[in-house]
Amino acid sequence: MAAPSLPSPVNVLVVKLGALGDFVQALGPMQAIRAHHRDVRVDLLTTPPFEQLARASGLFDRVIAAPRMKWHQLGAILALRRDLIAGGYGRVYDLQTSDRSSSYFRLFPAGQRPEWSGIARGCSHPHANPNRDRMHTIERQAEQLAVAGIPDVPPPDLSFAETDLARFDLPDPFALIVPGGAPHRPAKRWPAARFAALANHLAGRGLTPMLIGGPDELALHADILAAAPRARSLAGATSLLDLAALARRAALAVGNDTGPMHVAAIAGAPTVVLYSNDSDPALCAQRGPQVTILREADLADLTPEDALRVLPPLPAAAP
């Protein structure tokens, strides 16, 4: 049974540190918190990669972008503690619900701890569902907020994310291709040769494949471009706002289970996401207006033809 909604506090803090997919899927809960506490100050504690996106959302009065700290960095931890205490927070919504974010509960003096929605031991509004770790992120956070007295949570929204794309001299139409992912999880990556084959097919159908990724994926993009010369790489050139704006204009987006594909899905691109058994779409699948999940135990066994069969309708090839 949901805990009663307590009187509105003076100030509210939302904690959401990352990663990218988790952050953008939390935009719905963030919007719900802002609407519920429309007459008080709502701040966000996050990490530097998400500061620009958080500010652009217009949901927060202040964005605290604190780098990830090691526990031996006592000076930085004490500075954060002073900042949190000075914030005058009456309620905290911990949307990260990790050991790290729960430890922030203990940074507040015992007699001054705010109401806390999360999983920190002793918090006022615990999300105590024993099955919470087997729930999709979006349903889990919606249930967490319901326990704290916020029953209505909209889907995540990136319509605010707009930017000037003129510098990219975009072709029309184009497709976003996201061939990278976390380097420590190679099993989540479709082979570069398969992406190249897909890019060549799309180019033959009149779409320019635009490769998206970080600067550390330049070599991966180069391998694909060598086999698919009509593709273009934007490795390291796009902000998160750029990525959302690109996805809004893209004919489609295809890629591995990685953060940018969450952005593409939420922004509204027809999206095809490739999953291996290394991640579970029941827990973390991309959500958006038009999302297709394509799963194979080993992504090396997934063929370009498999991907082509689930793509949305493509423009006819130019004569």
Structural write-up:
The chain contains twelve helices and twelve strands. The strands form two sheets. Strands 3-2-1-4-5-6 form a six-stranded parallel sheet, sandwiched between helices. Helix content is 33%, strand content 17%.
For this entry, give a set of tags.
Rossmann fold, alpha/beta, six-stranded parallel β-sheet, 12 strands, 2 domains, single chain, elongated, 319 residues, disordered N terminus
How much helix, percentage-wise, in residues?
A: 25-40%
Given the structure, what is the number of helices? 12
CATH class of the largest domain: Alpha Beta
Query: What's the shape?
Result: elongated
Number of separate domains: 2
Strand content: 15-25%
Helices and strands: which structural class?
alpha/beta
Estimate the mean pLDDT confidence.
Answer: 94
Major beta sheet, specifics?
A: 6 strands, parallel
The CATH homologous superfamily name of the largest domain equals Glycogen Phosphorylase B
Topology:
Elements: E1 11-15, H1 20-25, H2 27-36, E2 41-46, H3 51-57, E3 62-65, H4 74-86, E4 89-94, H5 99-103, E5 115-118, E6 125-126, H6 137-147, E7 174-178, H7 192-204, E8 208-211, H8 218-227, E9 232-233, H9 240-249, E10 252-256, H10 259-267, E11 271-275, H11 281-284, E12 291-295, H12 304-310
Short overview:
This protein is α/β, with parallel strands linked by helices. The protein has helices spanning 20-25, 27-36, 51-57, 74-86, 99-103, 137-147, 192-204, 218-227, 240-249, 259-267, 281-284, 304-310, and strands at 11-15, 41-46, 62-65, 89-94, 115-118, 125-126, 174-178, 208-211, 232-233, 252-256, 271-275, 291-295.
